[in-house]
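Prompt: May I have another protein with tokenized structure?
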Amino acid sequence: MAKKETKKNVKKTSREIREEGFENSFIREVNEDVQQDNLQQFLKKYGAKVAAICTAIIMVVVIKTVYNNIHEKSVMREAGVFQTVVSNVDTLLAEKKVLEAKDIIREFLDEAKYDYKDIAYTMLFELSINSNIDELMELLGEMKEEANTDKVRDFATFNYSILAYERDVNLEGLIENLSPLMKDRRSNFRNNSYILIISAALNSGNNDVANKFIADLERDKKLPIDIKTQLDGLKKLVEAKS
């Protein structure tokens, strides 16, 4: 009797399993239909916007790729032109035709946009070093504004400040010109700007300004040895004049 009931229960359980499987399959189909309907409704409502966004993303990628390719080709083209410029400048300098060499570099700078622009500026500065002070300051003023790298811009700012002080002997003007370099701890000319101002202040007999900038520079605990040596020498001069 117990065996028959067990068998009956087993058959019932199997039927229930089949029914549950049918129900699960039916529910799954219903869910899929619902999801498909929801997708269709979503696409109907937002399809145009989604397509526009996807198109915009693709366009950005394409434009960026094209820009990179054009940029790379432009840099290579500029490199080729610059090689020709260097060759022509060397030939002219061998013939002692400095003005003609400067003209060639200037023509290149009028069109240059990339890495070789700053090299050309440096070449032009070296050839102009013996020019009159106004011409040299004009070049350095241009380099401050037009050079591509901070290193060359800072170089131009520092040298422009020196020439301006030599011409005008104006301590306040020197401080104003060098202020951007002193504020920038990454600048290679920061410490030398302080040293230059302290020296100029001593030469003009303004010990108060000299002491102020000495104190400002001493706050930097990581000064290079050569700067520390110069600073110690300037401090002794201030003490001797006090």
